[in-house]
Amino acid sequence: MSDAIDSSKIIDGKAVAQKVEAEVSKTVAALKEKNIFPKLVTVLVGEDPASQMYVRMKHKACERVGILAEDCILPATITESELLNKIQALNADKTVSSILVQLPLPKHISAQTIMNAIDPKKDADGFHPFNMGNLLINEEGLVPCTPKGIIRLLEEYKIDVQGKNAVVVGHSNVVGKPMAAMLLNRNATVSVCHIFTKDLKSYTIEADILVIGVGVKHLIKEDMVKPGVVVFDVGINQDSTGTHGDVDFANVIHKASLITPVPGGVGPMTIAILMSHVVKCAETIGQ
Amino acid sequence: MSDAIDSSKIIDGKAVAQKVEAEVSKTVAALKEKNIFPKLVTVLVGEDPASQMYVRMKHKACERVGILAEDCILPATITESELLNKIQALNADKTVSSILVQLPLPKHISAQTIMNAIDPKKDADGFHPFNMGNLLINEEGLVPCTPKGIIRLLEEYKIDVQGKNAVVVGHSNVVGKPMAAMLLNRNATVSVCHIFTKDLKSYTIEADILVIGVGVKHLIKEDMVKPGVVVFDVGINQDSTGTHGDVDFANVIHKASLITPVPGGVGPMTIAILMSHVVKCAETIGQ
């Protein structure tokens, strides 16, 4: 059973996110002085409640930092070409700094086609291939927000990455692969594990830095990590007992030197980084 | 000392490259029937003898497969903006299918700026961020030729990648990082090691598939690999005794199940894949 928790080991994602948002607010104020008004347009197709909630959270963050937020709500019956037209109109609209298409999209629309249509300079999510490629070749600009948030946490907690054994569990386009690229750019030795990995523990047990985002409650147990590991838990698993990460937090914390909680760890950082990206877009396009 | 070598373990890169070139020749002939004449323009800045040799090798390969090859030789004193103008003219030239800028460029020119200026559809080398990003998100199109050549060798030798432990040594933009992405796209568990890795052997000894390209003669010794490993050696190290790979071939072969020699392994594949890319460009742009 888990003993008393040493709270000094908990990475306070909320506090760092507030710090990032305070920086963003300052930059927004300075931009407004120059008549530049950062604006995020969120594109929501259909009425998925989870997507609606995510969009609301992003709008609230915009409000907190002084970024204009505009809703573009479209019916689930919209065709791909109609949606492409909408994206092109937003690309052309000089008052729009950033465009965020909330995923998932209905099955009759190719998410990749839509992502590719967004002007890479307005791509606050960092999912456009051009931005992904710049990430891979260590010319990081707009990059996916969740891994970028983890990098910022590493910096805030003064964790030197170079030469460390980093293990990323999950190889999605949104978290695992960009996270691996960012850690490589900072000269960690990086291993990427996933559903096809034969002996997960043989990797996780060697990790100095462990990032996991696969959506399996408490996949990472205490016996799978080494003493002193720094753990970033991207998992969000809801059940009748509450919200759980991919890490068995209550037990793993005894071995970890630092660990993110769920909720309150990586999540708040993702949105704060998104805000910083909207501002970056506004600075780049001067609008 | 090394015993007699079992030649059945040697991956014959030359033979597979010839097979690829034969496929390319066939496609070129079919394209010519449709009045499409694939053409590669190589841009060489300055008079570096190694670069001149590489360009010559590519022109010879073009000749073998029926691709038109054109030299664009520019003085080392050319400015970045003059070179950019040249690239833009080649982008606009409908008779040009592919543009290859031979690296390295003189120090006063940003290679990245030049790469970014090449039309991604004419990017036979696969170095443009847009193409690199599509690689990262598993939408592989034009990708770097050396790792792509290794993937083709894996296919030809019927090595299933999914679930295997793959170790990539070197994290360059040209080989290591794109190789890691391609192996991940095929569901290998992938570790990337490099100059900052603290205990290289602890990684290489676990590899089912080992790719190395760092330019250190015989870095990988027999005691660093496990029995049955499949080894791809991208290293080319010249000294007074000849050309050597990054792998101590004569000894490692006794433990490996398959291994590429240097020369005659990965090298010929790189050029054959380049040829296939020129044809792919010609098919895409219809010229």
UniProtKB/TrEMBL annotation, chains A, B:
Residues annotated for NADP(+) binding in this entry: G170, H171, S172, I195, I236
Domain Tetrahydrofolate dehydrogenase/cyclohydrolase NAD(P)-binding: 144-283
Reaction it catalyzes: (6R)-5,10-methenyltetrahydrofolate + H2O = (6R)-10-formyltetrahydrofolate + H(+); (6R)-5,10-methylene-5,6,7,8-tetrahydrofolate + NADP(+) = (6R)-5,10-methenyltetrahydrofolate + NADPH
Pathways involved: One-carbon metabolism; tetrahydrofolate interconversion
GO cellular component: cytosol
GO molecular function: methenyltetrahydrofolate cyclohydrolase activity; methylenetetrahydrofolate dehydrogenase (NADP+) activity
Keyword presence, Hydrolase: yes
Keywords, ordered alphabetically: Amino-acid biosynthesis, Histidine biosynthesis, Hydrolase, Methionine biosynthesis, Multifunctional enzyme, NADP, One-carbon metabolism, Oxidoreductase, Purine biosynthesis
Sequence ranges assigned to domain Tetrahydrofolate dehydrogenase/cyclohydrolase catalytic in this UniProt record: 11-125
GO biological process, one term: L-histidine biosynthetic process
Superkingdom of origin: Archaea
Enzyme Commission no: 1.5.1.5, 3.5.4.9
Family the UniProt entry places it in: Belongs to the tetrahydrofolate dehydrogenase/cyclohydrolase family.
Subunit structure: Homodimer.
Function noted in UniProt: Catalyzes the oxidation of 5,10-methylenetetrahydrofolate to 5,10-methenyltetrahydrofolate and then the hydrolysis of 5,10-methenyltetrahydrofolate to 10-formyltetrahydrofolate.
Record's protein name: Bifunctional protein FolD
Organism: Methanolapillus africanus
Gene designation: folD
